[in-house]
Amino acid sequence: MTTSPSATTAPLTVREIHGGWTVRAVAGPVPASSRDLLESAAGVPATVPGTVHTDLLAAGAIPDPYLDDHEALLKWVGHCAWEYRTAFDWAPDGADRHDLAFDGIDTVAVVRLNGVEVARTENMHRRYRFDVTDLLREGANELVVEIASPVREADARSLALGYRPQVNHHPFNALRKAAYNYGWDWGIDAATVGLWRPVRLESWTTARFAGVRVLPGVVRADDGTWDGTLDVHVDAVRAPGGDRGELHVRVAVTGHGMTHEATGALVDDAGVVRLRLPDVAVWWPRGYGDQPLHDVEVTLVAGSAAGDGGTQAAAGGLDRWHGRTGFRSVRLDTRPDDDGTSFTIVVNDRPVWVKGANWIPDDEFLPRVTRERLTARLDQSVVANVNLLRVWGGGVYESDDFYDLCDERGVLTWQDFPFACAAYAEDEPLWSEVEAEARDNVARLSPHPSLVLWNGSNENVWGHRTWGWVKRLDGRTWGLGYYEDLLPRVVAELDGTRPYTPSSPWSGDLPIRADLFPNDPAHGSMHSWEVWNREDWPHYRDVVPRFMAEFGWQGPPTWSTLTRAVSDDPLTPESPGMQVHQKAASGNDKLTDGLVAHLRLPDDMVDWHWAMSWNQATAVQVAVEHLRSWAPRCQGSVVWQLNDCWPVTSWAAVDGDGRAKPLLHALAHAHADRLVTVQPRSAAGGEPVGDDTDVLAVVLVNDTDEDWAGELVVRRLGFDGTVRTSLRLPVEVPARGTRTLLPDAVTTRFEHPAAELLVADLDGSRGLWFPAEPRDSALAVPHLATEVLPADGGVTVRVTAANLVRDLTLLVDKVCPDAVVDDMLVTLLPGESVDLHVTLPVGAVVNPDALVTPDVLRSLNQLVEPA
After folding, report:
1. pLDDT mean over 213-217
2. Active-site hit among 153, 459, 625, 756
3. Are 359 and 405 in contact (CB under 8 A)?
4. pLDDT tens for residues 358-414?
5. Once rounded to an integer, what is the mean pLDDT over residues 670-683?
6. 455-477 as b/e, with b when 16 or more CB fall inside 10 Å?
7. Fold topology of 19-149+193-197
8. Which residues form the Beta-mannosidase-like galactose-binding domain (predicted)?
9. What sign does the CA torsion over 323, 324, 327, 331 have?
10. Of the CATH numbers 3.10.450, 2.60.40, 1.10.10, 3.40.1000, which one belongs to the domain with range 784-863?
11. Which position among 112, 203, 265, 516 has the lowest Cβ density within 10 Å, counted as fewest Cβ atoms?
């Protein structure tokens, strides 16, 4: 994972210091068998950016932390202090000033250059810059960074600050470090250290940019077009003894057939250049329009007049910043209404129905998250028809690469500040560190049009109210000052173009009102965890929130990921490695409890894996379709979670090896722009009625800009395909609208619930309702005719069903781990066919027969015992 430095051109020069590093243990419980290697002065080769775990793994000093129970074997790593060391040559180049810049140090460290202490750091979430002009030597220079044990440091600081409640077995809330590094209910406990983002030496003369903030927006012109607005905020700093003459900044915006330039003088080395750009191409979320991006170049020049910029202009300026942006407006509508308090993201004056997913760091060891890997993950989010990713507060402020890719795809982003599931001290030095990191990252992420919401914390306001914190805190601060004061103040000062919320869930008012419960479904955003933890997934239909920001259901990773990570023999749901890779409290019990109402618990491991994968996908699809059916009262769904950081049983749609689980395709179906869904309703179409099937509604959801008109066909069918009753209705659903229809009772009254279903079809979209649970139904062994045909990039598996086949799914990773299928969970009525397109890695050859074996070509039918 990388971030782009703000300065990239002469006369400021940049030298990356990424080579020649070594790392060694300098304190802590290194195993006796490794001491000669890891405590020697020579150390082992280290990668920068990197982490100590990946360095030790590359050196063969530790096994892969992700396999079996190696997590337990490697806990000593986080209890050690580590020293990173390198040397670099330097010669005077005439520059006034030389800065040592670190974009990420994890976490509590001492930096020394040529034996002299340069600085001490204690925040993973911010960038650092140190003046080393007087410390550099001509010739060889030695740079050493000693990083304290993250486990011992968290313990010590927890004592110093005073106990604050949290949800882990480490006091992660005592340090400004990614909380998930200490383990989570889906994460490995492998507390990291390292230089996790780039390190460089920057040499400059006269002045450089201390910061550049680019704040884009749009306003509607009188003729209905959009005029772009761009505020470029610049702070500069001058070298001691440098030229104290005037400084100017030149801003150039190009792209999509337009070029605009403006120049402004800096006063007291700060200033704002404002541009008004007529009739710009507007950036839209995916599904609402295109995502035009414009290049922005900001140049710092010295000179006496804005017009010529002095001699530095011809040479490229003193410093230069380059980035991309898009023009759009955003606001959060939280107005009270008859149903409570709304929570609607509005982009370019248009409400957006959020089809979202929560995002966690994509690896325990963050430098392994390359742009290529992020591209793959963002492409998977698009497969799932996701239009928003919420960057969860137990991780990090995401990288520029992540935001660039979201900008390009029109995937909206919601960035939590890194506070999650804990009370946080508001005392020094934590307060100043939080302010420094917030200022750094709000400015860094300001150009990105995809970023539409800043959120102060994850579940902390809710936790304070309901998790017993008040008594345990005994009057100590817990973070409210951050969420109600510091963070909104920093956002208002440095951004001011995006909405801010203090926490998620949130009842919709700031300051937070004591009379509103922070997780009230009628007010603002909601998290739903009673379902899964204590209730079965049909209960998702019991509540209509204004916005669902977290909910989800667990399932295992794909079979190839699972069997790569766990080598148990025999492999069972409760075998030792499976238990290590299940982090949720009583997780397997909850998996079982959530399955047996729908299917009998399989005794075979292969069937267990498929059953739990199916149940996860079905649970979430039921939830999302329910939430969408209540638009516009409900305005969003953000499932927990898109991705994983290691191979584990979890709520993710993409497992820790980057493979799509059936859930990803369930999300694609539930997020379809045009959705036909069958939902239980009261006879008047009013409040939700849980799983009461006496009254069924067909709900048509049209999330496009065109009206949707056609003939709705509703049929009650027997499992053999015979039509019991049917009706045809001409319907029209307005653009971005929802229509609820109550078919007559004859159509929806099931005479043989175990052997009937309701099918609603409109213009190629289909909704289904099965009145009986699968375990109580007459589903039969699937009778399939299959063909495997050559296709570009792979093969096509054509499947024709002779009988009703529910949720046909090709688990192609069992045949070729890196193969990808374009759809899963397809229900076929008798006589229907589907083509499943399989993309194969270059050069891969598969046995066509292997793709259609019963353990690869799965269906729900296989999990139902014949009557």
Report:
1. 95
2. 459
3. no
4. 999 999 999 999 999 999 999 999 999 999 999 999 999 999 999 999 999 999 999
5. 93
6. bbbbbbbbbbeebebeeebeebb
7. Jelly Rolls (2.60.120)
8. 43-197
9. negative
10. 2.60.40
11. 265
